[in-house]
Design brief:
20% helix, elongated
Length: 174
Amino acid sequence: MTDDQVITALVTWLARVTATTVIRDHQGGDRPVTPYVMVNFTGRAPIHAHERTILFDDFDTGEDVPNTAGEFPAVTARPLIDTEWRFSVHAFGSSPTDILGPVQSALKLTQVMEAAFPDLVVASTSQVRNVPEWVQNEWEPRANMDVFVRGLSRDGFEIDVISDIPVSVGSLTP
């Protein structure tokens, strides 16, 4: 999955779980009316040192797509990499810790997880942190937690396949 697909899936799932408006960070525009949740993508990393396997596009696709040498067929290799995407999730409103609490409960219920994440799993969360911030000369209630989502990354690259190997046998005479 791409980073954008994972972010979109998490935003959709959090909106269901928290029953609150959920936005992506750095969207621009005015802030939504409170309460709301903001999702900040902080990074991704492989879970294991080695890929699970490598998928190759079908060699017999019937399409005339040449490889980089102008020969046929072009082949794309996609390593399946167990990946963890990391997010900082922020809640805004009068009781922001209460907004994020259901996220931790939802992790315990497979039925809540499966519908939103057929290819992803919310692996874990951090504690819910109460982090009020001084905004326009008053304290604004805020809460924050980290959410860790796991799935498979399938980035692909075209690779060249040797289609013909010239063979020549030299003379073996002394």
